[in-house]
Write a structure and sequence with these properties.
Blueprint (H helix, E strand, L loop, with lengths): L1 H7 L3 H13 L8 H16 L10 H27 L2 H10 L1 H15 L4 H8 L3 H11 L4 H30 L3 H31 L1
Helix pairs in contact: 1-3, 2-3, 2-4, 3-4, 3-9, 3-10, 4-8, 4-9, 6-8, 7-8, 7-9, 7-10, 9-10
């Protein structure tokens, strides 16, 4: 897989693959978009000579990966947000049956009302958190101007973190499956940490 991605890194196809994966995983969280971004960044590092300690000559490819993943993330959030906004009674009933969606909707509303939405950024790293927050924001008819800037920051943070894992993993461990595996584990670790914090915050709020 690493060799295949490396062969595509200089062509538009790698960006199209990443964009499509990141765009759709707001609806299908099982898509390995993070793994694909990390693998592409590892392949880009191999092509730039980062793994051998040489001065990288293809840094624009890394920047393009970040831009591509960020843009696709924001567009996916916007599509989910708009669909949920127009979801009507059917979606409202689905949210009413889901404790997770109801909780996210309430907490997101409180966060945006206070003028801050770190929850949106945190949820981007948690498994399925992006889906829950984007759908919850749309279903609750929160203003786009309150939600989308945080969505953009969340997408940029996630994309930059994922690309950095692949790029610096190749620099430190070489362009091998070990580097890719360690980077993917670090991404999953961040997701587990984000999910833990999101679970703890409601408990702390109830205790206070």
């Amino acid at each position: 897989m690493l060799e295949s991605v490396g062969a595509l890194i200089g062509s538009p196809w790698i960006y199209a693959m990443i964009a499509l994966s990141v765009l759709l995983d707001v609806f299908l969280p099982v898509l390995p978009s993070g793994v694909l971004v990390i693998t592409a960044a590892t392949a880009a590092a191999a092509g730039s000579g980062a793994a051998t300690g040489q001065v990288p000559h293809e840094v624009p490819d890394i920047l393009a990966l970040i831009l591509c993943a960020t843009t696709a993330s924001v567009l996916g959030d916007l599509v989910a947000y708009r669909l949920a906004w127009r979801g009507g009674e059917r979606l409202d009933r689905a949210i009413a049956r889901s404790r997770r969606l109801r909780t996210a909707q309430e907490r997101l509303g409180q966060a945006l009302a206070r003028g801050g939405g770190p929850l949106v950024v945190l949820a981007r790293f948690a498994p399925a958190g992006r889906s829950v927050v984007s759908l919850g924001a749309g279903a609750a008819h929160h203003r786009a101007r309150d939600f989308l800037p945080w969505s953009a920051l969340a997408g940029l943070s996630w994309a930059a973190y994922s690309v950095a894992l692949g790029y610096f993993g190749a620099h430190w461990l070489g362009t091998s499956w070990l580097a890719t595996g360690v980077s993917v584990l670090a991404l999953f670790g961040a997701g587990a940490g984000a999910a833990y914090v999101m679970r703890r915050r409601p408990e702390a709020a109830e205790a206070s």
